[in-house]
Amino acid sequence: MEKIGRILIVDDDETSIFLTRRLLNTLGIGSNVRTAHDGVGGLAILKDALEKGELPQLILVDINMHGMGGFAFLEELGKLRYVNLIDTKIVLLSGSQSPLDIELAERHLSATLVQKPLTRDKLLSVLD
């Protein structure tokens, strides 16, 4: 697994954020994690990171959130033409088994869909 220094978690559930941080720490990649509770907050963090030249190398974003959800976040991210995320891995997290959610996730070729709960094996499979 390549070295991952900067991570953004976008999720409206505090328990999910806590567990994800804990998982990242067990993998030795959780030292520089920023969090947002919806897509709007995630975009603000990305814009700030861009200004500092510190874009995340990994973005974990929940599909279903209050406010701006994961799909809307990806749509807005795609509109930010000045953001080059070629070195950023984007992972969509979902507890949904809805065929519509799975289909929508597959349309976002830049993102990988992972079913919640996020586990060590699931995370490692998308990072390798």
TrEMBL record:
The keyword Cytoplasm does not apply. Keywords: Phosphoprotein. Pfam families: Response_reg (PF00072). The modification 4-aspartylphosphate is found at D62. This is Response regulator. InterPro entries: Bact_response_regulator, CheY-like_superfamily, Sig_transdc_resp-reg_receiver. PROSITE patterns: RESPONSE_REGULATORY (PS50110).
